[in-house]
Amino acid sequence: MDWGMRNRLSKLIQTDGKCFFMPIDHGYFQGPTSCLEKPGKTIAPLFPYYDALFVTRGVLRSAIDPLTSKPIILRVSGGTSMAGKDLANESITTSIEEIIRLNVSAVGISIFVGSDYERQTLQNLSDMVNQCENVGIPVMAVTAVGKEMEKRDSRYLALSCRIAAELGAKVVKTYWCEENFEKVVNGCPVPVVMAGGPKCETEKQVFEFVCDGIQKGSIGINLGRNVWQSKHPVAMARALYAIIHEKADVKKAQEVFNEEKNKKD
């Protein structure tokens, strides 16, 4: 691995081998998502806790201060919306020249294994890897499932993650699953980070799946809605940071959450 690639990855994955990515890219297919109408304002109080920001170029330019930003993972696939027929029908939206111009630490691109657009999205990933390898920029593959959430079992996720790694992704973002998540991680030769998915009912549910995933080999999280849609987003971010970087268990994370929440109260 060349110097530039290693340097960029070191900004994303911390010295303890773990990471907390904060995605605010939801608007590229959902529009003005609840609590993310003004993304710059939403993430400002969360800044101390996440390691990198996953964002589109439009929001990066319009809402993120270039003088005080954390490392950027740039969303580079899209072209569909919730109003359309199929979220899987994505294309690459951002040129390599634009990626370099924005000085990002990595790019993120969705793949939809098992969909009608499987080959198209896997080719998108391959094309992006080919271009980014030439300039030392890591690619994070996102094993998306669109509206078909029932696909989130270990067999499907393991298949998707392994294919993404085989095609050259340096990191894979995937969903946690209750059964056999270690199968997903162990079958993927590159680091796996967990997506948050739909918002959980309680903070404890979030702490439980994140702790379980870390114990089973995930290096961290790429988790947004369960943080910035929380009634106490700063407390949520602080507690998740404790799990990821301070080895907190569910009980300790809940204590950290309550302590931070009470500061605000």
Characterise this structure:
The chain is of the alpha/beta class and 265 residues long. The chain has a single domain (3-226), classed as TIM Barrel (Alpha-Beta Barrel), CATH 3.20.20.70. It contains twelve helices and ten strands. The strands form two sheets. Strands 1-2-3-6-7-8-9-10 form an eight-stranded parallel β-barrel, surrounded by six helices. Strands 4-5 form a two-stranded antiparallel ribbon. Helix 9 packs parallel to helix 11 and helix 11 runs antiparallel to helix 12 (250-264). The mean pLDDT is 94.
Which short descriptors sum up this protein?
265 residues; alpha/beta; TIM Barrel; eight-stranded parallel β-barrel; two-stranded antiparallel sheet; 10 strands; 15% strand
Percent helix, as a range, is 40-55%
Domain tally: 1
CATH superfamily: Aldolase class I
CATH architecture: Alpha-Beta Barrel
Class by alpha and beta content: alpha/beta
Gyration radius, rounded: 17 Å
Q: What is the residue-averaged pLDDT? A: 94
**Helix-strand topology string:** HEHHEHEEEHEHEHEHEHEHHH
End-to-end Cα distance = 48 Å
Strand content: 15-25%
Classified by CATH, the class is Alpha Beta
Could you give the order of strands across the largest sheet? 1-2-3-6-7-8-9-10
Q: Give the uncertain stretches in residue-range form.
A: none
Please report the number of helical segments: 12
Q: Biggest sheet, in brief?
A: 8 strands, parallel, barrel
**Number of E-state strands:** 10
Write the layout of secondary structure elements.
Layout: H1 3-12, E1 19-23, H2 27-30, H3 39-43, E2 52-55, H4 57-63, E3 72-75, E4 77-78, E5 91-92, H5 96-101, E6 106-111, H6 118-133, E7 139-143, H7 154-166, E8 171-175, H8 181-186, E9 192-195, H9 203-215, E10 220-222, H10 225-228, H11 233-246, H12 250-264
Parallel strand pairs: 1-2, 1-10, 2-3, 3-6, 6-7, 7-8, 8-9, 9-10
Antiparallel strand pairs: 4-5
Helix pairs in contact: 9-11, 11-12
